Amino acid sequence: PPMILREDYRPFGWLVPNVRLDFTLGLAETTVRADLQVARNPAADSTPVLRLNGDGLNPLEVLVDGAVMNSWVMEGPDLLVTLPDDAHTVTITTRIDPAANSQLMGLYASGGMLCTQCEAEGFRRITFFPDRPDVLSTYRVRMTGPRADFPVLLSNGDLVGSGDGADGTHWAEWHDPWPKPSYLFALVAGDLMVQRDSFTTMNGREVDLGIYVRAEDEGRTDHAMQSLKRSMKWDEEVFGREYDLGIFNIVAVSDFNMGAMENKGLNVFNTKYVLADPDTATDGDYDAVEGVIAHEYFHNWSGNRITCRDWFQLSLKEGFTVLRDQLFSQDMGSAPVKRIEDVRVLRSVQFPEDSGPLSHPIRPDSFREISNFYTATVYNKGAEVIRMMRTMAGPERFRAGCDLYFQRHDGEAATCEDFVRAMEDGAGLDLRQFRRWYSQAGTPQVRVAVASVEGGVELTLSQTTPATPGQEGKQAVPIPLKLALHDRATGTLGEETLLMLTGAEQRVTLPHDGDAPVLSVNRGFSAPVVIRRDLAPDDLVFLAARDDDPFARYEAMQDLVVGHLLSAVRGEAPEKWGAEGGRAAIRDVLATVLADDGIDDLMRGELLILPGETYLAEQLPVADPGRIHTAREALKGWLGQALEGEFLALHHRASRVGNGFDAEAKGARKVKTQALVFLAAGNPGLAAELATAQYDASCEPGGTMTDRQGGLLVLAGLDSPARTARLLDFYNRHQDNPLVIDKWFSLQAQSLHRNALAHVQALAQHPDFTLRNPNRARSLFMAFVGNANAFHAPGGEGYRMIADTVLALDPLNPQTAARFVPPLGRWRRIEPGRAALMREQLERIAAAPRLSRDTFEQVSRSLG
Ligand code: DPP
Ligand code: ZN
Question: Bridge partners of 597?
Fold first, then answer.
């Protein structure tokens, strides 16, 4: 497959101002007649050849200006039509089989309904079209089909007509007045229930809202609807963005590759991010629904009104929209907790991506398959880069920059460079050097040294970015660091300031009048970098217990534990870390956290989470996953015993809080399961009893899925007679709800049970398991990959199972198959024995005949 380069971008030779699509719908046969009004693009090189992308299509008929034309040619999957004049109407008929579409790209069947997914390049599987985001058209869509099978017929924009046809058919016609690229086209036809509501915009326009689901999911859409209305209001208040159609519809689909899709006026969602009720969704699920609903809604401006010129600019809409959804969620719940969660995701997913063979800049320079670039780098690091601009400008000037961007580029297909320029002009920032964040891959490492000088301290800050594939030399990037200087002896907390580190090395002097200065740095995680600081354990203990920045507190806690665990993994003498090799200090800080009345349980729950195994492995040039797991479990067990009374008391206190959805109840549920996690490591017998009791209580009327899943997750890791009984009970209780059965697969795949690998092998044979449903495939195998100890089983069985999964899934659904390759691609950072086994599996995949472009690209980059 060819490599596509960013620098090769050229505008398309033809404009397609208007498109008319006429669908005759059937599950196994759908006929599509497309009328494209085309005109030469004055801004592009002139060409008589109109290249229309296709993927697996045959043209049944081609008309030009209504007359049959036979001189078209196919070039690979594309259709080339040579046109004599400057403007024509080209009409093409294609026929597709949605039921056979297992890739879930284009038009496909899911549980008796028809739906579409077109981003990035799915539209070319429906009809021949210039399937690129810089060709903007208005769409008029007519659908005809049997009323009994498809009582609901939806597309983008406004409903302009509907009626009955012959033989039990009916039709509907939709018109979307906003020009859009083909990736935002959507169609849904099926037997669906709807929850309706309405929203009045800031200028008094009424918008009809609808959430469409299958009959069995009725009654679980209220949270999504409330989240939608909150998102619409927030975007008006915080970004000044108003909705621009009379209808906003959401449809939930259970077979879906992504989380959701922002099609204009007709968002299509994975059921996982729509459906929620207390008996089947956890608190985490509720938050995820709210966040994804917001994300897709916010795309209406950052993505749809202003789209991307080409797919290299993906972060233009995704990075910005992730930042927007993060700020929204911060405003809806606990801002510090949300910030810590976002940083945890960045560091456990994006940092490893950026230090491995798949590392790429937030604006990539090349790709073979764009689906492989919907990554944590483009999304989450992209959001961090824009967040830094916001930090440098402050919220008001940032808003002015956003306003200018929306005003300047409304209706256009724009670039990251356009966004940066709007920020320079609108927010008054000088971003000349900052642009390197867009072009340079890799996570900057910042070293901070503190020395006492007369009247204060001198900071020496230096930065380096490790080489990444294809980028050997790196330049310094501007790094905004929020910092404060506290005093450990007096407990005085210093004022926060913002320091810009712009060079490779920089020295600054800060005034301080105490004897024990302690530097709190990268507060709020103001920059997506790794901080290397040599802080004494006493300083970390002070920061973990006292810092006024919640993130800095969390970070000190993490550093304290990371320091202890890494030295245990390296087999170093523990004295460096003081009494008990640092364990005593960790115990004391945890005890402070457990007793601290100044924080709520949601925050307490964050401070109790030990650094994950992937994050720990990331701290070492070459990691031994087995040793990391053993050291981490040993610490957890020691803490579980040392603080048994405290954890027990916490579990009791939290169990007495009600089942509501306020912050107090959610916090209580969070710490309740956290307490179980420590107790399970320290006193398994006691933990099994408590986990069983928590599970059983959650099955009483009004009980929550959060408690049920938390109890069962802990129980699944233990050897207890209750384990099998409760797993069976959970299955029986929820067997009709696929999203909950996904949880049942996941929690066994994630469990700390020593036979987890064998459990997963058996579950892959379970009658409810299938690779055809992406949620189900991920529920078992992605959860398993996240279970580092099981995935990295020393004999390589875990690696083989994942390679088998890739090979079985690739012919069905390449996009989802390719997502399982990166975990194996980490081999260079794993000890040599396992590394060889991981490589062996990558080579086995690479040797398979007829690999998809998706999997081929990921495997070849991983073998590098
Ligand atoms: N639907 C995916 C998202 O919203 C891709 N645009 O991120
Ligand atoms: Zn998005």
Answer: none
Q: Of 105, 296, 298, 320, which is best to mutate to test ligand 1, by the most ligand atoms within 8 angstroms of its C-beta?
A: 296
The residue with tokens 């008309």 is 63
| Rounded Cα–Cα distance for residues 815 and 853 (Å) | 9
676 and 712 inside one domain: yes
Contact 399, 407 (CB under 8 A): no
In degrees and rounded to multiples of 5, residue 609 shows phi and psi of -80, 120
Judge whether residue 648 has pLDDT over 70: yes
Give the span between the Cα atoms of 764 and 755, in whole angstroms.
14
Query: From the CA of 308, which ligand is nearest?
Result: 1
From 424, 439, 454, the end of a domain falls on: 439
Q: Are residues 480 and 398 in the same domain?
A: no
Classify residue 129 by its DSSP letter: B
Distance CA 558, CA 570 (A): 18
Q: Which residues surround ligand 2, an ion (CB under 5 A)?
A: 318, 321
What pLDDT digit, counting tens, does each position of 408-426 carry?
999 999 999 999 999 999 9
SS3 label, residue 832 = helix
483: tokens are 């910092």
Please tell me whether residues 179 and 327 are part of one structural domain: no
Domain count, the chain: 5
Rounded to two decimals, the pTM is 0.99
159-192 pLDDT, tens digit per residue, is 999 999 999 999 999 999 999 999 999 999 999 9
For residue 472 the two structure tokens come to 């050997």
Ligand 1 binding pocket, CB closer than 6 Å: 119, 258, 260-262, 295-296, 299, 318
Q: Which of 118, 123, 258, 815 to mutate to test the pocket of ligand 1 (most atoms within 8 A of CB)?
A: 258
Q: Torsion angle of alpha carbons 551, 553, 556, 558, nearest 10°?
A: -70
pLDDT of residue 30: 99
Place of tokens 């679980």: 220
Indicate whether 809 belongs to any domain.
yes
Provide the residue type at 345 as one letter.
V
- Active-site entry in 119, 173, 296, 353: 296
646 as an active site residue: the answer is no
Closest ligand 1 atom to residue 303 Cα is 6
Does 577 score more than 70 pLDDT?
no
Residue 229 in contact with residue 198, Cβ under 8 Å? Answer: no
Q: Per-residue DSSP letters for 50-117?
A: EEEB-SS---SEEEETTEE----EEETTEEEEE-SSSEEEEEEEEEE-GGG-TT--EEEEETTEEEEE
pLDDT tens digits for 251-305?
A: 999 999 999 999 999 999 999 999 999 999 999 999 999 999 999 999 999 999 9
- Whether the Cβ atoms of residue 290 and residue 329 lie closer than 8 Å to each other: yes
Q: What is the DSSP letter of 495?
A: P
Domain termination residue (choose one: 703, 734, 765):
734
Average pLDDT over residues 497-515: 96
Q: Considering only CA atoms, which residue is closest to atom 6 of ligand 1?
A: 261
The answer to whether residues 729 and 794 belong to one domain is no
Query: Could you tell me the residue range of the domain that residue 42 belongs to?
Result: 4-191
Which atom of ligand 1 lies at the shortest distance from residue 295's CA?
A: 4
The confidence score (pLDDT) of residue 576 equals: 66
Residue 221 tokens read as 């859409």
